[in-house]
Every structure is written in C-alpha cells, then in structure tokens.
Description:
Number of helices: 24
CATH topology of the largest domain: TIM Barrel
CATH superfamily of the largest domain: EAL domain
Oligomer: single chain
Number of domains: 3
Amino acid sequence: MLIGSYSPTLVIISLCVAILASYTALDLTGRIATAKGRAVHLWTAGGAFAMGIGVWSMHFIGMLAFNLPIDLGYDLTITVLSLLTAILSCGFALWLVSQPKLPAWQLAFGALAMGAGISAMHYTGMAAMRMQPGIDYDPTLFGTSLLIAVGASGAALWIAFRLRQYTPYVGLIRAGAAVIMGIAIVGMHYTGMAAARFPDGSFCGAAVSGLNGKGLDNLVLITTLAVLSIALLTSVLDARLEARTADLARSLTEANRELTQLALHDPLTGLPNRVLLADRIEQAMSKVKEQGGCFALMFIDLDGFKPVNDAFGHHMGDQLLREVSLRLREDLRSQDTLARIGGDEFVLLVRLAEPDDALSLAARQVGLIARAFRVAEHDLQISASVGIALYPGNGQTAQDLLMNADAAMYHAKGAGKNGYSFFDASMNSNARKQLQLLQDLRNALEQKQFSLYYQPKFDAMDGRPVGAEALLRWAHPTRGMILPDTFIDLAEKTGLIIPIGEWVLNEACRQMREWYVLGYTDWRIAVNLSALQFCHAGLVQSVARALSAHQLPANSLTLEITETTAMSDADASMTVLQELSAMGVDLSIDDFGTGYSSLMYLKRLPANELKIDRGFVRDLEHDSDDAAIVSAIVALGQALGLRIVAEGVETGVQQDFLTKLGCDSLQGYLLGHPLPADRFMVDILRAEQLTTA
C-alpha cells in the first residue's frame, strides 16, 4: 500500500474555507428569506454558485493537501463535474430552506439528497486522479463518510432554516453554527480520504495531462476567498440597504399616520375635526337608511370662553379647551363622535334609540360644562349653548345638519345661553340674517361705515356742558343706521369688538383733541368698554397709544365699564383699573345698581365716577322704591368720594329730583340727543348762548 501524508497548512486552510463557506451559506439563507419576487431567484442562483465553490474548494484544497510518493494530477473534466455537483447540491439546499415550512420528512429527504450530492462531489473529485489500478475504499470508513455527509447536511439545513430570520445576536449565533458545520464538512471529507486505499505500483493517470498541484492550491484558495468574500459582502451590504429601506418605510408609514392624524384630527384636543366629522355623519346617515333608527347632531358653543381666553391668555384658553373635551367625552360611547370644528365650538354625533333621548343627553352636556373647571390653579366658570338637529327630519346632507344645528345653537344663545334648543325651520331665516350681518360687520371697519355720535353731559347745578359720551353707530349700506344693540353681541362673539373698540377709542380721542384745542379743556369724553375689551391683554397699551397719538391729557378720557364686568373677576379687574388709573384716565362704573356688587371690592376699585342706570331714573316719579335706590346710590357715591352721573333724564321732574339729591352731572334726551360731532357742537353753542343770555 502507498502511504499518504497531509500538508498541515492546507488542512487548516481547508477547515477555514469550510467555516467561511458555512457562514456565507447561513447569511445567504437570511437574504433569500427576506427577498421578494425576482430577487429570490437571483439570490438563490448567486448563493448556490458561491456556496458550491466554497464547499468544492474545501474539498479540492483537502485533496491538494494529500501527498503520495508518486506524482499526482487531476482530470479537468471530472474536476469541473465535481464542482457542478457541489453547486447543484448547494442550490437545492438553499431552495429547501427558503420554503415557508420545513417539516421533519422534508428535512430528512433534503439531508439525504444533499448528503448524496456532497458525497458525489467528493468521490467524483477523487475519481479525477484516474488512479491505475482504481482506488480501493474501506467499506466501514466509506459508509461512515456517507453517514457524516447526510448528518452534516441535515444539521446544516436545520440550522440554516432556524437562523434565516433576523434576531438579536444572529451574527454571533451564525458564526458559532458555521464553525460546527465547517468541522462536520471537513470531517466528512477527511473520513472519505481515510477510506481510500492505494495499492503498491499504483500510478496517477492524470499526472501528465491533468491539473497538478504546483501553485494550484494558491489559485483555488484566492479564487474561493474572492467569491465567498464578494458574496458575503454583497449580502451584508444588501442587508444594510434593506434595513435602511425598512427603517425608511417605517418612517414613511409613521409620517403618513401622523399626517392622517393631523388631516383628520384637531391638533389641540386630538378630537376629530370638521373633515372627519363630515365623513362620520355620512356613515351615520347611510346606517340609518339601511337599518333604521335615528341620530342627533349637537352643536356645542362655549359661553364666556373668549373673556377667559383674553383675560388669562391663549395658553390658559387652550388648557381649558382640553379640559372641556375630556369632560364631554366622559359619557361618550364607542359609536358616538365628538369633534372640535372651531375655536370654542364642538359637535357631538350620537346614535339614539328614540328622538326624545336627545333631550336628556343635551341637558347632560350643558350640565357637564356648567361645572367649574380647575385650570392651572384657577377655578373657571363657563357654560354651553347647544343646538340640536335630528336625522331623519332636520336635513338631507351633512352640511344641512351642521347648518341647522348651528342655527339652533344661536337660538339657544339668544334665549339666554347655558341651555339647549331643537332646530326649527324658522331658525334658518334668522341664521341667514345673522350670517349676512356677520359678513357685513367684517367689512364695515375696512369700508369706514362706522361713526360716532356724541350725547352731551351737563353739570347738574348750572347746566353748563361738561363733556360727552361717545356712542357707536353703523351706517349700513342697505339697512341704514344700525344701533349697537343689534351687532355688539355678534362682535363680541367673533372677537371683532377688539378692532372696533380700538377704532372707537382712537376716534373719540381725536374728536376730543379738536374740542380741547377750541378751549374745552375741562371736558371729558366717555367711551364704553365691552367685557371682551376690558379682558383683552392689550387694553392699557391701546389707551396709552390713543392718548399719545392725539396729544390728549389722560384726565380728558373717561372709560365706562359695567358693574357686572368689573365684578366678574374683581382681582383681575383691580389690576387693569389700577394701571389705567395710574395713567390718569378717569374710570366710571356704568349701570350701577343693576349687578351684584360687593361693597368690599367697590371701595377698593380706583373708580372716579358712578353712573346711575336709566332703569332707576325712568320711574323716579312713580316708584318710591326706585327713588330710594337712587338716593342710596348717590349717598354711597358721595361717601366714597365719587362723581355721580345720572343717565336717561327725560323729564324736568327727574332733573330736579336728581339735582336736589346731589348728582354732579346729567345726560338724557331732555338735555340732548346723540348727534354727529358737527351737529353736536351746533347744539352746544346754542345752549351756551341761552345760558349766557
């Protein structure tokens, strides 16, 4: 027998190649598992080529590591055939582990097929030496090599199938598995080599014309390492690209979800917005048509929200709106929808068993809002006006239902707020008129349709003029002259009262400056402040700008606020009034006696004047109670060192009574009607002539 030997270096290299080929195979199975469409076939073909070359290279380097005391060579055709066998076997293995499932019978069949292929590759490669006489194989070792081939194939397939999905530390696990697989493959090869017997006198038929080992080991090694490295590097780079693509896809999905959320939901409260509400209404209408039943659309508008928002700032207002949305959702069912469609406007869409159920539900919503809200250590009190539209019955489209519920809400506000109202067809006419009036009101300031009329005030004792009250008038292009009672509430609700109020303040100061230059330096011009103006954060600055712009002394301006406004938040009012008083502006408490004053706060208010409401003056002659109240107000004002003004004086008896009580000044139709500035001065000059005469 010819005794062979092995090159330790090449044996170690063959083991390293086997481990690298195994790791490449495991990595490629992961790429195939995540690939889709045509990419699956490309990765399978490329993987089969790279893995086949790796397995064959390990075998061939192992063959080159073997030496006999004769010249050895390898038939090129048979060697190429062994390479093709390796590639086909590896391709079958990659296809098998790329299947969704790998049951035991399929694993066993695959192990047999792949083991047979690897064994065929090995023994075909041995046959490439074309030994004469032929190689004799030890049956026991030959059988053992086949069993190792099948067992190693089965283990490789099972490991590859289990590690094909990405999990934490999958790289380390694959590396460990590759070492085990590499040792198994090398074990099969060298067991097969050990089974070979070479009789004495044998010679290699391929030694002359075939491939020989001179430099061939280096060529095979370099080529194999290049192929495996390229395959592995391509797999890693593709995996990273796929991971980045997956991250980008997740980011795009999240961005789309957020965009959808923003497009369909209110960013402040997270409630559905007008767009999503319209879709929900359409769905509810379709369900009613198909299944019967009914639903209610409740338009909820907050009463008193704007004063809170302007007094405490938008941040506080936003917090209050969030609290309102949370409270309104307390009784919400999964099939109901609560939406925010505007600043302080909410809409509730609720399925009903019976139309009458809307009554108790609306009452509950009003009651929920009426409870005080605790926001940033402040107890805030607001209320809600609710308009109710029913389907079927109050509209055929989502837009009709919303419009009708809105009209019913306005009716609830007109009825005193803090309540609810069902839609009635007659409300549409009023709603359209209100909407048209609002559109006209928005244009009125820009188109200079507003003007000021002035009602004179006279000294109660000697009858001389002491100033005037500025009263707003709207010269509507089609409806003629409109008094403030018609549009002030609408201006308050929409916030238009702020720019309108600033115009009034500026125009009154401009006119007063003209009279001041004419010599009426002791006059005062009185301007009424609405509740929203008084709560507005920029009030003090607006007053300062108006006085400065027209070079008017601060004590020439009197700002009138109602008793109710001053007392609604006495502490906040105190701060604003003190700032105005520090500027030198006169402050008057208007409509005194009609609210619910606290005398404790009243004595602290830096007011200069009390104005007796016309309601008490009107019945002085016939109602002893009114006379007693007026007497008490005058006495109170005098005790506090305040000027007393009585308005609504229309008879001589009223004038005499108020003068005897000690009122400082009077105004009313008996003494002078509100007039434009030019006609006002004509009457003043006439009165002065009569006085001097």
